[in-house]
Amino acid sequence: MRDLLLRLVLNTLTLWIVTQLYGGIYFARGSGLGDYLLAGLIFGLANALLKPILLLLTLPFNILTLGLFTLVVNAVILIIVASLTPLDVRGFGGALIGALLLSVISFGLNLLIGPSDRRRAR
């Protein structure tokens, strides 16, 4: 349960950082913490449930592009999340750049907290 809450916080923090750094992804004015948490929750669910299916369906493109098509899949996930939450994305190009930023920032935050099995050993 603790890991799920940590993932929710990390997803929310990552989305917040990206909206602060990049103008192509933003929350409507007046959005509060609840809106960010909702977007983080739906983003995590979409990554856990939809992303593996989309990656499997696009496997030939991923092989041809040596994995770069995964960025397109991430952008589609971001557009889906934006359609279900107060998050707004400016076009597919905005989603593509946002997906790249989300990947880099999420990678950095995951490096900071370390793997989940190491946290359990403490």
Automatic annotation (TrEMBL):
One Pfam family per UniProt: Phage_holin_4_2
Name of this chain's protein: Mycobacterial 4 TMS phage holin, superfamily IV
Organism: Meiothermus hypogaeus
Tagged with keyword Cytoplasm: no
PANTHER family: SLR0284 PROTEIN
Keyword annotations of the record: Membrane, Transmembrane, Transmembrane helix
TM ranges: 5-25, 37-57, 64-85, 91-113
Keyword Membrane included in the entry's annotation: yes
